[in-house]
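Researcher: Batch entry, complex prediction.
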Amino acid sequence: MNTMDTAIATHPFTRGINPRYLHLLTKGATYERFGADQPIFQETFDADRFYLIHSGHVALHTFIPGRGVTTIETLGGGDALGWSWMFAPYRWHFSATAADPTEAVALCARTLRDEMEENRDFGYWMAMRVSGVLLERLQMIRVRMLEMYDPPE
Amino acid sequence: MTRRNELAPAASVDPMLPTPFRIARRTAETADTFTLELVPAGIACLFGFTPGQFNMLYVFGVGEAAISLCGDPAKPESLFHTVRAVGTVTKAMSELEPGATLGVRGPFGNGWPLAEAEGKDVLLVAGGIGLAPLRGALRWLLAHRQKYGVIALLYGARTPDDIIYRRDLEPLQRSCELILGITVDHPNPDWRGKVGVVTKLIAPVPFESSNTIAMICGPEVMMRFSARELQLRGIPDERIYLSIERNMRCAVGFCGHCQFGPDFICRDGPVFRYDRVRSWLNIPEL
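Model: Structure tokens for the complex:
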């Protein structure tokens, strides 16, 4: 296996994957390196990639008038980045920038969508995996909403 | 609890009698949090303690508050307490200047399982001012570095301005002796670090779950979520320890103010194994 195949096969997102699906993920995928502060994708642009972060850190952010660029969350090695590619209209909801030198596999979103449609078993597996990522992020946002560090009155 | 005072002798005086200590130094940590260095106001004495224990600090004429010891257990000449000014007593404490006198009772309670952790990977998970009770444990671990495996300090704060002990943490970021992860919930524009909940820092740490001990201190909700994440990562409940906080008054198990299920926090804690307290943590009445 080359670097990219290994990165996909060993990423937590693909843990326990049916080996038959691995080649579906690698179709059209590229292994990408981003320097610190290098943009990865931009809000409202086409969500044409699904990233499996191998190393480094990525800041998800948006621009708030009067406050400037605001980081919503940081992701690191072992995280999956982006789910807008899976849902129409396939445009990024937020922007992402490498906070440190970052390496990631960029899976081809169009290929994934086509394969999910074509191969429903793979589509189900993929949908469940992305749902798991969504659930984890949702729970973390809920925990943050608790403002748990505020002292009791 | 077998950990009680295993690293230090217990106080031998009447536990209800405060000993006068003078504030030698006051260090601002954040807008509402400060650290006091206390030295004996009368006869010099050594004040041994186990990291994780607490003292009752008495502001004369106002009242007492239970505050964790956060200094170096190897340097018992001074006491260090980090305090957040949120109540009547701690707000009065925040107004005291160096030279003022406080009453001190203690040390009370058990401490972190530092002897039990020998030979294991150690995760310290702290939230907000919950870093204070773990500070002494961290110093102990680093002073006896060869006895432990991977050591990780994972710290979450609300904002960058709420991070305490910056003077300690900055050199640790370059240290190869431990893994330091810091994250905030709400970054400011200058923040270049991680953003998200502290539990997110656990997964990247290369610990061996079958040989890891975790010590958690912070707001109770943060400890619940952290314990669940540690469970998911394979650490059994009996190797997860939490420092529980309740309204402590007498500090010696007489008054019952800090009762938590069948235990008194002051007498049986404040450090508890998760398997002992997990069922109580979800009962709002407690």
